[in-house]
Design a protein that fits this description.
- By secondary structure, the protein is mainly beta.
- It has a domain at about 335-585: Rossmann fold (3-Layer(aba) Sandwich), CATH 3.40.50.
- Helix content is about 15%, strand content about 40%.
- The protein contains eight helices and 37 strands.
- A hairpin with a 2-residue loop joins β10 and β11 (about 120-125).
Length: about 600
């Protein structure tokens, strides 16, 4: 039984797809799919290894797929054939970025790699050998195939610019060429379709116009003509993400995130008119494919693991294949509004009513610029099967609720968001019987940072704290972090004096703590959990530390057969009565 699908990718013609899958035993596989007029059909399943979060897939129109894995110092590349055969190709020390090949090139894929302040572009030829085909004048951002060319966002003189690379000549030119009325306008590549590129532009408003600042607009650029600016904005409330465009550059699909829910809209790029597509309650992943048979998107719901959804040409409702939600016995979820420190907080709740449940887990998401939604979560399902209720709130700092909600933590990490977490804990306690167990606070990544802060600030509010891949503070993380994490810290003001520091308060945690971290975490170095575990142990606190050998930032697995997952679930069910031996799987490190 498949519990999760991730790294979903489509061929450029929209007729094929591939993804990583995990079943109920924790076994991981690569699935190859054919997308037909009768719906999606899985054609091949082969065993897969390595972290799914460190995997890239490139799907060819003939069904072959490049499976590109990475662990520190080693990039592996394997060509998987439709009949299940695998051919190892030349690897590298990495990390490399893999993209589809331009149409008609005969390549297997395109590779982008940093080169000084720019980017080296290479072709993966039919025999697996890489050959340089060009260079970009900056570090690569969003990228895609535009017919026989590549289109890539780079930073030029401080301005985001989309350039077009001709692999036949190696020539690189701005997509908005000199003479185009929009030339020089800050632009980001959003998606491609056929020879067309969909751009997001920051267009200057007329002097004196309100509101002040640039206006965000969509524009389509073809291989032969100037940019075509879509009339007006999208006029869609919420966080809007274009995910696919038809080969003619006429229509695009956009997902809109509004709180925990996903909406789907089909927009006419010549008129700006958007039509709403009927979608069951759930979540659409921000990726899609377009073929003559329709549009294809990954979809999941609280009681339904990820599967391919299909929007036939002209249809007004999304079709989801497979069993209906809940058919396999998975728990559904409901949305509740609970009291926060500055107003109601929306939360996704799984399992029995928290007011009478024997155990409640307050689950905090990572990010911080993220949010809980109505996607299938295999670990939450395991918690429910253990008799627990999961309350997953979108406290201040979460996306999907407008700028004020998301920006509340800018320059104040661990301040308003922790205030909301503590207010939620008080509300949960007030709604339960006087002698009911206090909730356990659980978080991953940034959520783990918040969980430990909440346990330090009010230890009496909790029965335990589980923190997966926490960091000590943004200031401690910054010197060790990669460019993406540093950019996030800069963008969200993590280095401000108002941002919290666990080193200053960790000794105040008095409840039982479980820490877990992946040995090869690429986002938050494992040294942060080691240091926190050491501090708690030296202070005489009840702490267990699990270090997962060979794993990265994604520590947990979707199966009780995994010792880290099983240990965490046992802790959440009863953080006080734990056998320490059960919390020390072979290969872990403990202070």
């Amino acid at each position: 039984m498949i519990l999760s699908r991730s790294v979903v990718r489509f061929s450029t013609d929209g007729g094929r797809a591939a993804c990583r899958a995990t079943d109920h035993t924790g076994a991981q596989s690569l699935e190859l799919w054919q997308l037909t007029p009768d719906g999606p059909r899985r054609t091949t399943t082969v065993a897969a290894s390595g972290e799914a979060g460190q995997t890239q897939l490139v799907v060819l129109a003939d069904g072959r797929t490049l499976h590109c894995g990475y662990r520190p110092g080693e990039q592996t590349v394997t060509l998987v054939h439709p009949d299940g055969r695998s051919t190892p190709l030349d690897g590298d020390s990495g990390p490399l970025r893999f993209l589809p090949a331009p149409n008609g090139s005969g390549w297997l894929a395109t590779v982008l790699s940093p080169l000084g302040d720019g980017t080296l572009v290479s072709a993966v030829l039919a025999d697996g050998v890489r050959r340089e085909v060009g260079r970009l004048p900056g570090r690569a951002g969003g990228a895609g195939v535009s017919g026989a060319h590549l289109a890539v966002t780079v930073l030029m003189d401080g301005v985001p610019t989309v350039v077009r690379l001709d692999p036949a000549t190696g020539r690189c030119t701005p997509l908005l060429a000199a003479g185009d009325p929009l030339s020089g306008t800050p632009a980001h590549l959003l998606t491609t379709g056929g020879e067309h590129v969909l751009l997001g532009l920051s267009v200057a408003r007329p002097a004196g116009a309100a509101p002040a600042g640039p206006e965000h607009r969509l524009a389509v650029v073809s291989a032969t003509g100037p940019a075509r600016l879509m009339p007006g904005g999208t006029r869609l409330p919420g966080v809007t993400r274009p995910i696919a465009m038809d080969p003619g550059g006429r229509v695009a699909l956009l997902t809109v995130v509004r709180g925990v829910r996903s909406e789907l809209h089909r927009i006419d790029l010549s008129t700006g008119v958007a039509g709403t597509i009927s979608v069951p309650p759930g979540v659409l992943a921000p990726v899609g494919g377009c073929s003559p048979d329709g549009w294809w998107l990954p979809f999941s719901a609280p009681g339904q693991p990820c599967r391919f959804a299909w929007l036939p040409p002209g249809a007004a409702a999304l079709r989801t294949a497979g069993e209906p939600a809940g058919a396999a016995g998975w728990s559904g979820a409901r949305v509740e509004r609970l009291p926060g420190a500055a107003g109601p907080i929306e939360a996704v709740v799984y399992g029995p009513d928290w007011r009478g449940s024997p155990g409640v887990v307050l689950a905090l998401h990572g990010g911080p610029d993220a949010h809980w939604d109505l996607a299938f979560d295999p670990f939450f399902q395991l918690m429910v099967r253990a008799g627990l209720t999961v309350v997953a709130p979108n406290q201040r700092g979460s996306t999907g609720y407008g700028p004020a909600h998301a920006d509340a933590i800018n320059g104040a990490w661990g301040d308003p968001d922790v205030a909301d977490v503590l207010a939620l804990a008080h509300g949960l306690r007030a709604g339960r019987a006087p002698h009911a167990a206090r909730p356990v606070v659980y978080g991953t990544s940034y959520g783990a940072f918040l969980a430990l802060l909440a346990a330090a600030k009010e230890p009496q509010a909790w029965s335990g704290c589980a923190a997966i891949a926490p960091f000590r503070s943004a200031a401690a993380l910054y010197p060790e972090a990669g460019p993406a994490v540093r950019n996030l810290i800069d963008r969200l003001g993590g280095l401000s004096d108002r941002s919290a520091d666990l080193d200053a308060v960790i000794d105040r945690v008095t409840v039982p703590v479980l820490l877990a971290h992946g040995q090869f975490d690429e986002a938050i170095p494992v040294s942060h959990s080691r240091a926190l575990a050491g501090r708690l142990s030296a202070a005489g606190r009840s702490v267990r530390y699990l270090e997962a050998p060979g794993r990265g930032h994604s520590v947990l697995r979707a199966s009780l057969a995994d010792p880290v997952t099983a240990s965490l679930l046992a802790f959440l069910a009863d953080p006080v009565r734990q056998d320490p031996a059960a919390l020390e799987p072979a290969g872990s490190w403990a202070p």
